[in-house]
Amino acid sequence: MKIWIDMTMLKDEHFDYFVEKYPKITFESNIENAYDADAIFCMPGIAIKNKLELFPNLKWIQLLTAGYDPVDVDYIHQRNIVLTNAKDVFSIQIAEDVISKILYFNKNIKAYAKQMENGLWKHHKVDYEISLSTIGIIGTGSIGLEVAKRLKAFETNVVGYKRTRVDLPYFDKIYYGKEGLHQVLKESDYVIISLPLNKNTYHLIGKKELEMMKPSALLINVARGDIINQDALAEALSKKTIRGAGLDVTSPEPLPSNHLLWKLDNVFITPHNSSSGPYMIHRLIDEVDDTLKRYINEQELDNTI
């Protein structure tokens, strides 16, 4: 078996780890020498038709990300190639990031950070708490579950939206279907977007949906920018239709420096970095290693797309 490893976000030590642990497998880091590979561990940008056609023997693709919106899933399935992702690797870091964005608004962090620059001691009224609020999580997968787990500790009512009916831990109620989505938007004080981008979720949140939200609500997006109609969001924030938005993702990325969203006081933007953390690479290696062991032993894979 031969496996090509995309080294975009990995180091030589990670490559060496697999070489030493699996001596019967041939690992390659140079793509020019790997077109005969049986499997590839790669970023989503590699998993598109014109690049995958160069790998005629390919049987398995292990993505090094949880998201897979650039991936040509239909082509991969047509070739009967197994496709897996790094589904649990980034969830803990992203869940912590969600909380940081909520507290940024609730605790007047921006105002106090500016005051520190000038040595200014001045109080600001706090109008919002997480405690006793309703948390609405759009997308109840691995990330949504970790968000719910942590925000439930704040003594909150946690509701979720999923396309199909299901019961999950840490959620007080799961809504499904179009009416369910609208119900989550209407009753939530904090709406968190944590679902994958696909043809069904593109612009899932638009002008109509934003107007359903409470004027006091915060919208947090740690998924993909195109799940929200960004023009509609900018308009809603300008008109104070909602209280504010914490965005780790935008459309496009990077967001142009002259975009309106940069200029609004009720927006907090980070550069698609919510998954960053000191243990991220360790979790990624563990996830890929676990999937590789399962694949070799012909066991059921728990992260198949």
Automatic annotation (TrEMBL):
CDD domains in the cross-refs: 2-Hacid_dh_1 (cd05300)
Coiled-coil boundaries: none
PROSITE patterns attached to this UniProt entry: D_2_HYDROXYACID_DH_1, D_2_HYDROXYACID_DH_3
GO molecular function: NAD binding; oxidoreductase activity, acting on the CH-OH group of donors, NAD or NADP as acceptor
Protein keywords: NAD, Oxidoreductase
The UniProt record lists the keyword Translocase: no
Residue ranges annotated for the D-isomer specific 2-hydroxyacid dehydrogenase NAD-binding domain, each copy included: 101-273
Pfam families from the UniProt entry: 2-Hacid_dh_C
Family of the protein in this entry: Belongs to the D-isomer specific 2-hydroxyacid dehydrogenase family.
Protein's name in the database: D-2-hydroxyacid dehydrogenase
Lineage of the species this protein comes from: Bacteria, Bacillati, Mycoplasmatota, Mollicutes, Acholeplasmatales
